[in-house]
Amino acid sequence: MLLDPFTLLVLTTAMAAASALYLATEWSSVRERSLLLWSAGFAIIAAGSVLALLRSSGHVLIGIWFPNGTLIAAHWLFLAGVARFTRFRLSGIWWLLVVGWLALLLLPDGPWWSKAMLGIQSLLIALITLRAALLLRPHGGVLNLGAAQLRVVLLAHGLFYLAKAASTVALDAWIDLPSFSGAVILVSLVEGAMAIMLLAMSMTGTERHRREERIAQIAARDPLTDLDNRRALYLRAPALLERASPATPGALLLIDIDHFKQVNDLHGHDAGDRLLMTLSQLIRNALPHGALAARLGGDEFVILLLGAGDAVQALGQGLREAFAEQARGMFATPEPVSLSIGATLFDRPDLELSHWLKQADNALYASKRKGRNWMELVRSHPSGFA
Predict the structure, then answer these.
(1) How far, in Å, CA of 136 to CA of 48, rounded?
(2) For the structural domain made of 230-379, what CATH number should be given?
(3) Each residue's pLDDT tens digit, 314-340
């Protein structure tokens, strides 16, 4: 197959249309708006490539400048998709770029017109593309593989158009745009076809990784309270436990709702669910930075934190008082609905979570024996606690 501009345009049309269809299919299953914006961008490129085929018939405005304008619109949609993916709000100036290109068509024709249009259009595409790449830079974390690939492709694509814009102001860089011959047009078509393929692949990988992360988050969450579930607690706890030391002791609080069954029996299970959600919200509000909170099951909750010290007693006391007050106002029960808490302090990083859960469970039973609505705090002996 000859590598001529006509063949490249046909290939570009087919690849852009296939990319648009593929991303639209992905969007139909996951409903991520960034996929829809990227799909629309590729659809516009496909339509513009079809119009570009008219340039061989001498239709300069429809066959050259209008397709180039669709490239600006398509790249703007790519930028909007990246902004949606990164949850960044674009300023109003980026909305005016496509309108600005339309105004260029009203400029009077002249011997410099083609050169100026090519330079301005290339510069606009470069600015939009490079802005999209910069939005994908890591913010306090690491980009996933798909997003990192997309960033590299956008950077390379934007730099290509920046170089193309610079070429128009070079000496003797006049280009016969209405014809298919010309190295700049050929190189642009080759780069465009490669960019379409790479952009579509990295965009899909970017969203697929986001979807997998979301599935993992859902699997690690308790669906009612939105706290970590038991599985997530056992996965995340070791990293926190191994940082415990005499200088930075840790604490584990095991929390149980007193007379929870009365709420379910007298007011229904929906009332019990509301009570569980109330407690989970109180826990979230009181949770220190870096601490873990999880629902083990039923009406049993866990808080795991470092740098505890005397703050553990205050944390438990605050939760008990706040929960008792809210429960009183929500439901009437023969016995007061309150919290019993068993807590253990530790400074040994070599013991597993199950050990400290057992210690806290023993303390919880002790608080129940003392009449409920109580926090029993025990301290580990091996490394300095009395």
Answers:
(1) 27
(2) 3.30.70.270
(3) 899 999 999 999 998 898 889 999 999
